[in-house]
Amino acid sequence: MPKENLKSKFLGGMIGAAIGDAVGGLFEGRWKIALEEISTRIQEEPMLRYTDDTQMTIGVAESIIRNKRLDPDDLIKTFIENFEASRGYGWGTIRVLRRVKRGENWRDVSREIFGGKGSFGNGAAMRVSPVGLFYYDDPERLVTAAKLSSLVTHSHPLGVEGAVIQAYSVSTAVKSDPREDFRGETLLDDLVDRIAKTEVFKSKLQAVRELLAKGASRGEVVKRLGNGAEAFNSVPTAIYVFLKNTRNFRAAILDSVCLGGDTDTIASMVGALSGSYLGFQAIPEEWFRRLEDGEYIRGLAETLWRTKVSLTHC
Ligand code: R7I
Ligand code: MG
Ligand code: MG
After folding, report:
1. Among candidates 36, 20, 53, which has minimal Cα distance to 238?
2. Is the minimum distance from the CB of 51 to ligand 1 under 6 angstroms?
3. CB 124 within 8 A of CB 163
4. How many other CB atoms are found less than 10 A from the CB of residue 288?
């Protein structure tokens, strides 16, 4: 892939994730949101403020850049340093960060929460896009890194699986030429046959195919795939929305917000997929201009890309 195209995809993936989060964050927890209301509301906001999804995605990118790889011990430290309560973190994640800050080991804490089962929240999947970008050309290392990036806070197999599926989907979007139609069927085959491990995810990914083919209503999509804060109720939903709107970043974000529920997180995952496929130039300029810390995130994505390119060439 030409160098500049890859750079644009890294920028698109990270800025896309942040914009999806910030736009969706205006509506988190709502149900049935009309398209006109979303457009008006976005225009009224002087600044598009991001939430925990982006705060943690920034942390993943910073940590990878510093270590030139995914190092879980450094990652959890970075999450703790970057923590800002006002960003709206999930309850389980707050507990892990607090206890590790007090000196406990993340390996114990992330296993102990939720009655000893670990979290299957979408917190690991929502922040995984830098892993999908950085390891885009190495599926084996990508899966290992995505798992590790999840385990520091989300150790339930379904929480980990959501992160692996989202990271793999981002890597496929990076590798796909935006001048050609996106091969959604191939992505779904890969996910069902090789990447997904449980029936929970496999059956939802099969349902994505069916819902796309029949042009399902929003109500049916929410009913079958979900729109909640659990990994299995949001990762397949994001993949569905992306595959329905592969040619248009803006339409993909608005479509995900219309589904309601965990809007910031679903729109963030959709933004990461759409931006990684179409590249930075597909992101509406007026959205990027008003994105909180937009220039910092752009610089971070560029450094992530530079780090990747320097490792590939030595
Ligand atoms: O996954 P997490 O960091 O939350 C991310 C969400 C996103 O929507 C962000 O935008 C932010 O708003 O929060 O935090 P967790 O608390 O680990 O998981 C999220 C939710 O999933 C929990 O609050 C639970 O409702 C649910 N959940 C579980 N429920 C039962 N049993 C996660 N794990 C379990 C479980 O094992
Ligand atoms: Mg959030
Ligand atoms: Mg959310």
Report:
1. 20
2. yes
3. yes
4. 19
- To 10 degrees, what angle do helices 249-258 and 35-44 make? 110
DSSP state of 196: -
The rounded distance, in Å, linking the Cα atoms of 210 and 88 is 34
117 lines ligand 1 (CB under 6 A): yes
Cβ of residue 129 lying under 6 Å from some atom of ligand 1: no
Query: In the structure, what pLDDT confidence band is assigned to residue 11 with cuts at 50, 70 and 90?
Result: very high
The answer to whether the CB of 268 is under 6 A from ligand 1 is no
Nearest CA to 277 out of 246, 256, 241, 308 is that of 246
**pLDDT value at 124 more than 90:** yes
SS3 185: helix
Return d(Cα 307, Cα 296) in angstroms, integer. 16
Gap from CA of 52 to ligand 1 centroid (Å): 12
Q: How many residues does the chain have?
A: 314
314 pLDDT exceeds 70? no
Distance between Cα 181 and ligand 3 center (Å): 30
Question: Any bridge partners for residue 291, and if so which?
Answer: 48
Identify whether the C-beta of residue 297 lies closer than 8 Å to the C-beta of residue 303: no
Residue owning tokens 């993949």? 239
In Å, how far are 58, 95, 141, 288, 305 from 17, measured between CA atoms? 10, 25, 22, 11, 16
The answer to whether the predicted template modeling score (pTM) of the entire model surpasses 0.85 is yes
3-state secondary structure of 44: helix
20, 96, 166, 221 from 238: Cα distances, Å: 11, 26, 9, 11
CB 259 within 8 A of CB 34: no
Report which of 129, 98, 100 is spatially closest to residue 13, judged by C-alpha positions. Answer: 129
